[in-house]
Amino acid sequence: MDATPTPDLAGRQRILRRVVGQAYAIAIVLLVASVLVTDSPTPMWVRGVATLAVLAVGGLLAELFVRIAARRYPTMQLPVTSNIAGAVAASLIGFALALGVQAVLGYRVAITWATVLEAVVSAPAWLIFIGTITAARWRYLSTRELLLNERVHIEATRGIEREALSRARTSVANSVRPALAALRNQIDTVLTAPHGASMDDTISGLRAGATSIVRPLSHDLYSRGDSKVAPRRPLRFLVSIMRTQPFRPLIVSGLYLATALPANVEIYGFASALPALAIDVLFIVVVLGGANLIMRIAPRAHLWVYVATLVVVHAVPLALLIPGVVDTDPQFTGWATLVEVAASLLLLLGTSSLGLLDANRETVLEQLRAEVREEQIAELAEAAVLAQAARELGARLHGLVQSTVLASAAALEKAVSEDDTARAHAVLAEAAAAIDAAFLHPDDAAAAPSLLVSLTEVIEPWREICPVELVLDDELVDLVGESAEGVTVVVREAVANAFRHGGATHARAHVTVEGPDLLICVTDDGFGSGTKNWGLGLTTIDRLSSGHWTLVREGESTVLTVRISRAASTTSGVDAHSGGA
Amino acid sequence: MLVVEDSDFTRMLLVNAVTSLGHACVEASTANDAVIRARESGPDVALVDLDLGVGPTGADLARALRSTNPRIGIAILTSYEDPRLLGNLPEFPVGALYMTKGHLADLGSLAALIDECATRPVTPRSVSTRVALSDSQLEVMRLVSAGNSNAEVAKELWLSVSAVEKAIHRLSEQLGLPQVPAANKRVLIAQAYYGWISDGRNAYP
Predict the structure, then answer these.
(1) If you average pLDDT over residues A116-141, what whole number do you get?
(2) Does A399 touch chain B (CB under 8 A)?
(3) What is the CATH number of the domain that holds A491?
(4) Interface residue A411 vs chain B (CB under 8 A)
(5) Is A179's Cβ below 8 Å from some Cβ in B?
(6) Contact at CB, B155 and A543, closer than 8 angstroms
(7) Is A496's Cβ below 8 Å from some Cβ in B?
(8) Is residue A63 a part of any domain in this protein?
(9) Interface check A8 vs B, CB under 8 A
(10) Residues from chain B contacting residue A406 (CB–CB below 8 Å)
(11) A192 found inside a domain
(12) Is A345 inside any structural domain?
């Protein structure tokens, strides 16, 4: 059998469809609103049919976009070409649709046919725009990722003192201590005065405690640890980005200026349309610069800045068209059309700008590095590592303490319901011991084992069922951090899959360094589980490796090869283990 | 007879019960030990706990035991009301009996279980799913109960955070949990989960 990994198309399509669906809903609202508020001699039902046709085409386009994007871009990063293709397609379809509606139905809206064209162009532009922005948010402009994935980060983190790491962990541990102490006091009250304290109160207290314990950790757990890397000279940075790919924004801008031209000519005549086009050009410059700066300086805010801007810009022409609010004379509708054109430009330029950054990630990173002081990167890298250490401790305490307390609450409730006082006290004593352990030695719970220890713990339980031979590069033996955890998860899932679904009786796990990545190769003597029906194991591996894995049959063996980024890994300075396995 | 159970106390009770029924018994606390013991003593029936901690599950062990002895009777004894509560599991070997410990009322029912496994070890039997939740709902429940944040659950299951929030809301409705602002849905869901896996009874049926 020779199995090629199948991308999780359904999953990607589901995600994209959700994003695009939201944009499509906005388009529906805009178009339906425009039909309702437009004063037109054409009967309402005709306009309704025309609107439905537009929406149907928009829906088909959206679905097409989802399918192509999910299939072609497994990491959900869309290159700039998709924006250009989207712009061309939207323009052509817009023209065809507007002309077709006029020719077949004799339908002419009260404003101009060019406005219909703009509306139609805007709908797919919205879809492309929001889909691209969301994809970029996931994968790109996180400074944490930017720093953690870079060699410079790995170099910088080697200089971090153990004391600093310890301080970060202590700080997190201290944040949980008041809640732990309160819970402990409550249990003590029951244990020392069994006849005076209410078990029901204690059960409620345990449940509430499970929440209050993790509350101080929630900031660390839910924050992605992003920090801002702002260029010292924003304008120079902007110009340097523009210089990397000067023609792409110009192509996209040109397409939209061409789209806007018929509208302007229809409203103002050819000569008068030129100043309007000049305004559009100005718009392009401002928007392109603004887009890049917003994304660079406030990566987490840019989506909302864009959306707010676009809502305002779109709201203006709609407000102008509402009868009674503003006189809908041709001049106003013409002006509204112009604003609509500007909105489309804004949309597509935002899209092209994002796509530009995405397509030139490496170049942009180089530019950014040149603009940011080395010391600043080192400081941010250190802060990122410390924050990560705090998050890891938080996650472990979150899992260990909360689960323990919840399990105790359940066991206590059962003991109380059975009127088993002795058992209830035993449960409380166990809970107290667990809380004491977490209180006194939080770092014990957080001490991350080295890669060798983690892998040994994973494969040892399979020794008699499906023995695994482990081979590690020497430099990986003491590896700790996210990538070590990733390798451990991959080997764990691979071994379990090989036995459960491939009928393997023996396996070999080989982990090596290859450039900036770690290469995990798990070979087994099974018949292979195939990749058609993914279970949780392959889904996990796919997620960890961002799709960089293969499962092939080689002779009598099945070979799973997984490549994961060596991001956020450090080499443990304590408890070093020597030698390979 | 082979008894595999990672809890020392439960294993001791089971071994005593099996011995009192007149069966020779060997015991093991891990999958590795169980395979070695089975190799040494060649039991007719294995009583296997489903959750053996990190590594192979009771289902994995059952398959390994069956591969070396095709006629061995297998009984999965567990506190998990539904095998799906444990997460990613392989199929049970043909003929394996699934029974929750809470349903073993007395020695008679244990004797009947052993007898059934010994006399008809490979008669096809179905393992019913007893919890009226979908696989994905159980997965959300398991991950929430393991202390994962909504963001982590979303990452694990390839969902958006809002989808996880909705799933948790639907789950809490389906479990009949109190829908009042004072109730912490995540805590109650975790509590229901631990209720299911601790003694086979749901605290919020």
Answers:
(1) 49
(2) yes
(3) 3.30.565.10
(4) yes
(5) no
(6) yes
(7) yes
(8) yes
(9) yes
(10) 145, 187, 190-191, 194
(11) yes
(12) yes
Question: What is the number of domains present in chain B?
Answer: 2
What is the Cα–Cα distance from A567 to A238, expressed in whole angstroms?
28
If asked whether residues A161 and A119 sit together in one domain, one would say: no
**If pLDDT is split at 50, 70 and 90, which confidence band does A520 have?**
very high
Half-sphere CA count of A324, side-chain side, radius 13 A: 1
Residue A481 zone, left/alpha/beta (φ > 0; ψ -120 to 50; rest): left
| Structural domain span for residue A18 | 9-140+231-371
Which residues of chain A neighbour B195 with C-beta distances below 8 Å? Answer: 410, 414
- Give the end of a domain, one of A387, A420, A446: A446
Which band of pLDDT confidence, cut at 50, 70 and 90, is reported for residue A152?
A: very low
Give the full edge-to-edge strand order of the sheet including B73-78.
Answer: B26-28, B2-4, B45-49, B73-78, B97-100
- Residues A219-274: pLDDT tens digits? 444 444 444 444 555 556 555 555 554 454 555 555 555 555 665 565 556 666 56
Judge contact between A438 and A445, C-beta under 8 A. yes
What CA–CA distance (Å, rounded) separates A14 from A194?
Answer: 55
B148 contact residues in A (CB cutoff 8 A): 399
**Enclosing domain of residue B148:** 135-199
What are the DSSP calls for A100-158, one per residue?
Answer: HHHHHH----SS-HHHHHHHHHHHHHHHHHHHHHHHHHHHT--HHHHHHTSHHHHHHHT
SS3 A502: helix
The yes-or-no verdict on residue A458 having pLDDT over 70 is yes
A563 or A413, higher pLDDT: A563
Query: Token pair of A463, please?
Result: 């020794």
What's the mean per-residue pLDDT of chain A? 61
pLDDT at B3: 93
Lowest mean pLDDT among A45-59, A206-220, A293-307, A561-575: A293-307
What is the tally of structural domains in chain A?
3
Does residue B204 fall inside a structural domain?
A: no
B84 contact residues in A (CB cutoff 8 A):
none
Option in B88, B151, B188 nearest A536 (CB): B88
**Most confident listed range (A226-235, A328-337, A379-388):** A379-388
pLDDT over 80 (residue B75): yes
Residues B34 and B73 in one domain: yes
Instruction: Provide ipTM, 2 decimals.
Output: 0.74
Give the span between the Cα atoms of B30 and B57, in whole angstroms: 9
Q: Which residues of B touch A400 (CB under 8 A)?
A: 147
For the residues A105-129, what does the mean pLDDT come to? Answer: 50
Task: Say if residue B114 is in the same domain as residue B142.
Answer: no
In this predicted structure, the answer to whether residue B4 has a pLDDT above a threshold of 90 is yes
**For B136, which residue in chain A has the nearest alpha carbon?**
A536
